[in-house]
Amino acid sequence: MENKKKKIGFVIGSLSSGGAERVISTLSNELIQRFDITIITFTKSSPFYSLDDGIKVIHCREQLNQPNSIIDSLKLNYTLVSRISQIIREEKINIIIGFITSANILATIAAKLNHIPCIISERNNPLIEKVPILWVILRRLVYPLANNLILQTNGIKKIYEKKIRPHKITILPNPISTDLTELRTNTIKKEKIILSVGRLDKNKCHDKLITAFNTIAPVGWQAIIIGEGATKQKLKTLIKSYDLIDKIKIISKVKNIHEYYNEASIFVFTSKTEGFPNALLEAMHYGLPCISTDCNFGPSDLINDGVNGYLIPVDNQLELTTKLSRLIEDENLQKQFSKTAKESTKKYISKNVLDQWESLINKYIK
Fold first, then answer.
1. Structural domain contains residue 2
2. Measured between alpha carbons, how far is residue 179 from residues 52, 143, 192, 315, 358 in Å?
3. Does one domain contain both 154 and 71?
4. pTM for the predicted model, two decimal places
5. How many angstroms separate the CA atoms of 57 and 47, rounded?
């Protein structure tokens, strides 16, 4: 009997360890029951997150060389659009879904050339992202051509409403992967660990947590920072200067993140800006009492200050130190935040978010 499943094509740069890549992997694993799924990547890469065996991954190029001029950039992107179009035709894809700016633009152009609908998903904070001028121009021209733009918060929607008609914008939060939900456990003994997860760059401000830990000097506690990035050496130097090498660890490229969520007692998130904080959502889902900066965008969508966690002003070292000290000392407050944090993430559980995605996809392909 002929396969009657409709075919979805996701488009993204690669399948590395980022937040957008996790969301695509989660969506694909859940939607594969009802659709045929092909993930189109710009370059060849092994998926960081596990994928169902039924999901096809097709790359456009073995690798991409950094273009040296606008002409080189246009040539490269022409090649990528042509290849995405070819995959759409060969795989008989019914709808394309792009993730992140460059993939969104190329996916939309390829979809228009093949007369199929296109949904795009923007994951970054549009106020601070560093996008080359060519992409800024292309985004302004191309985004309005997509059938729908998925955003994660109402704050970001307000910015895009000036450029794209509001009826073409949908707010959909990130789904928490079913795998991650199933790996939660209450049987593991909580350790005196303060956890932080996020890319090691200036924007994430991990130095604030290191400095707060040094000031408080909590007996028997340690801090673990999970991430990879440009400020790694600087952070290690700071840890060494405080003589905290035995107390604060930096760990990179972790696949078993659930083990750290299960073992830690407190989660700290110190970002200056966010598109949507996946790590904070996951930590709360695991019932970790959380302290987060009240940055744009996302933390205030997740945390009701003093009810299911603490929201503190961005860059406020004193407030972070005070709230962290209070949370370390007050086990009852830890328990209260833990219970309410876990409760408040139910709407982000994969099935609830997936139903909304499926409804939107069906709107355009039925």
1. no
2. 12, 33, 25, 34, 19
3. yes
4. 0.82
5. 9
Residue that the structure tokens 């909580």 belong to? 190
Which residues form the domain of 285?
A: 179-347
d(C-alpha 201, C-alpha 74), whole Å: 29
Place of tokens 């009826």: 167
Same domain, 91 and 236: no
**Strand, coil or helix: 213:** helix
Q: What is the pairing mode between strands 148-151 and 118-121?
A: parallel
Please give the mean pLDDT across all residues of the chain: 93
Q: What is the side-by-side order of every strand in the sheet holding 56-61? A: 56-61, 36-43, 7-12, 95-99, 118-121, 148-151, 169-171
Q: Look at residues 226, 233, 238 and name the one whose alpha carbon lies nearest to residue 198.
A: 226
Cα gap 283→291, rounded to integer Å = 11
Q: What is the per-residue pLDDT for 1?
A: 41
Give CA–CA dist 148/165, Å, rounded.
10
Rounded to whole angstroms, the Cα distance separating 189 from 174 reads 29
Distance CA(292)–CA(312), nearest Å, equals: 6
Residue 93 lies inside a defined structural domain of this protein: yes
Place of tokens 């409403």: 161
- b/e for 48-82, b at 16 or more Cβ within 10 A? bbebeeebebbbbeeeeeeeeeeeeeeebbeebbe
The lowest-confidence range among 14-18, 179-183, 232-236, 344-348 is 14-18
184: which 2 tokens?
């939660």
Q: Please give the Cα distance from 233 to 53 (Å, whole number).
A: 38
User: Does 327 map to a domain?
Assistant: yes
Question: How many domains are contained in the chain?
Answer: 2
CATH number at residue 340: 3.40.50.2000
Band of residue 295 on the pLDDT scale cut at 50, 70, 90: very high
Tell me if 315 is assigned to some domain: yes
What CA–CA distance (Å, rounded) separates 288 from 197? 13
* Whether residue 151 sits in one domain with residue 21: yes
CA distance 75 to 13: 17
- Distance of CA 327 to CAs 207, 317, 336, Å? 19, 15, 11
β-strands 148-151, 169-171 pairing: parallel
Peptide bond connecting 42 to the previous residue in cis, omega within 30 degrees of 0:
no
> Cα 60 vs. chain centroid, distance in angstroms?
23
